[in-house]
Amino acid sequence: MQTENIGIWALSSYYILLIIPFGMMLWLRIPIIGKMLVAIIRMTLQLLFVGFYLQIVFQLNSAWLNSLWLLVMVMVADLSIIRGCGLKLRRFVAPLFIALVGGTAVPLLAFVGLLLNRPNIMDAQYVIPMGGMILGNCLRADIVGIRNFYENMRQREKSFLHTLSQGARLHEAIRPYLRQAYQAALMPTVATIATIGLVALPGMMTGVILGGADPMTAIKYQIAIMIAILTGTAITVILAILMSVKSSFNPYGLLDSRAFRS
Amino acid sequence: MKTPTTETTTPLPGKATGSIVPIIEMRDIHVKFQGKPVLNGFCLQLFPGEKLVLTGESGLGKSTILRCILGFVIPDAGQILIQAKPLTPESVWKLRTLLSYVPQEPELDDGKLEEWFTNPFSFRANTGLRKNLDRLPGLLERFYLSAELLHKEVKALSGGEKQRAALIAAILLQRKIFLLDEPTSALDSKNAKRIMDFLFSIPDASILAVSHDQTFLELADRTIQICAKGVNHAN
Question: Are residues A130 and A177 located together in one domain of the fold?
């Protein structure tokens, strides 16, 4: 069984289907047609670029180049979190980078090195798609976790200060907010795990099946990736929040408004 | 621009002589919020065992004075000493463990009231004080709070109940210095009097309070009227 290739003209004509969402938006006068057009163009260009680049990466299959590609992905995720959470670039870029690397590297290396037992631990065929999936989930979880943590800190500032006045050190005073943020960040992953396969076939499994493997192999990959995602998000969120705390509180234990963009 | 000043209305007999080291001293404190001066050269001395009340119109920085002592507002200039130790980023954590603070309109966290009382004793600084929780039933009774409230969600408490709970929490921590910000504002006169009598009877406790309550002012050793007349002066 091999994946059927898609012809360039066939794919181009598939774009005609987009007439349906465009038509609906025109009919309902939803003012996001421009945005959708830009999104489709961006998607096409980005994927074409990545496709060409990955072809080279897969051909060379150099551990260094693959690692570099992963680090570029981490950097993009890092900047996306900083923008999504309204944080100051200079203060947070390094701690969040470390949090993302930690959250991605541990489950990824365990997956490729221990579970698949690949001789080349940085094998492009595995580390790039797996790394992307884990990183994507780390990105989403970090945004939810960090936003929840700091929004709660701001909303319940009086309560936080009262805790400091009762003799709490900073790590003791932030604990309730950390607990709540951690729960908020991990809940979507836990919910996905609980319903996986029932609502829709997950992306990883679909990919493996389309790649020609039998469904049982696909399921084993899917189970492993879900474990990797849960582990990765658990590591990255705790690291992201704890490491960001060092940049966002002043030496008196007060939230430093200068750490945030607005 | 009006900035607050101080006027000592009642002198402290025998204490303001310089022979006793103040337990809290604020020297020439300047605080600005968004460029506007709130405290301008403010000075204050609180002596061991003294009950001192700050009073005056709202918006003149009385709460800011307490927040400066706690390290929640960092003065633009001036020095704060607690037990003769300067308040710095390094010392603030240790010095906070000498203080008991009751904020105006206490905002208690989520969860049951009982958890809220026990939580501070999980902090490393307070673990040795856990036995003080044995005093909780007696204090609840004394402050007219039912023991059943312990199992109630903190959010469901009234303003007066929250205020009394915050005062009890402050007493349980067994500090020598109490910083009280309008601690009786949500209480009826009977409850307020009972609580003040209790607080003022704690041996060796130094109290710095912000209050407009006449009974509080009468019980105090000294009161300071914060006015909007210019630069503050040492009292």
Answer: yes
Two tokens at A174? 């932030």
Give A4's DSSP letter.
Answer: P
Given a cut of 60, is residue B11 above it in pLDDT?
Answer: no
Residues A29 and A114 in one domain: no
With cut-offs at 50, 70 and 90, classify the pLDDT of residue B69: very high
10 Å Cβ neighbour count for A70? 21
Question: Among residues of chain B, what percentage have pLDDT more than 90?
Answer: 52
Asked whether residue A257 carries a pLDDT value surpassing 90, the answer given is no
State how many domains chain A has: 2
CB of B96 less than 8 A from some CB of A: yes
Chains A and B form CB pairs within 8 A to the count of 73
| Lowest-confidence region among A78-82, A115-119, A163-167 | A115-119
Instruction: Considering only the beta carbons, identify the residue of B70, B90, B108 that sits closest to A165.
Output: B70
What is the distance in angstroms between the Cα of A243 and the nearest Cα belonging to chain B?
Answer: 20
Residue B16: the pLDDT is 47
Give chain B positions within 8 Å (CB) of A158.
103, 105-107
Q: Are residues A13 and A138 in the same domain?
A: no
Instruction: Give the rounded distance of the alpha carbon of A262 from its chain centre.
Output: 24
The pLDDT tens digits of the residues spanning A188-225 come to 999 988 888 777 677 777 888 888 888 888 889 889 99
Half-sphere exposure of B131 (CA within 13 A, CB side): 1
Looking at the fold, whether A26 and A115 belong to one and the same domain comes out as: no
* Residue B43 pLDDT exceeds 70: yes
pTM recorded for the entire structure: 0.84
Q: Same structural domain for residues A166 and A230?
A: yes
Query: Which of A13, A38, A60 lies at the terminal end of a domain, its last residue?
Result: A60
Q: Look at residue B233 and tell me whether its pLDDT is greater than 50.
A: no
The verdict on A56 and A66 lying in the same domain is no
CB spacing of A252 vs B71 below 8 angstroms: yes
User: Of A42, A60, A78, at which residue does a domain stop?
Assistant: A60
Cα dist from B203 to A166, A176, A231, whole Å: 20, 34, 54
Q: How far is CA A122 from the centre of its chain?
A: 20
Distance from CA of A118 to the nearest CA of B (A): 47
Query: How many angstroms separate the CA of residue B169 from the nearest CA in chain A?
Result: 9
* Domain with A31 in it: 1-60
Whether residue A144 sits in one domain with residue A130: yes
Cβ separation A165–B106 shorter than 8 A = no
Assess whether A228 and A107 both reside in one domain.
yes
Spell out the residues 6+ positions from residue A61 whose beta carbon is closer than 8 angstroms to its own.
A120, A123, A124, A125
More confident site: B87 or B37: B87
From the list B89, B119, B124, which residue is nearest A251 (CB)? B89
Beta-carbon separation of A158 and B101 below 8 A: no
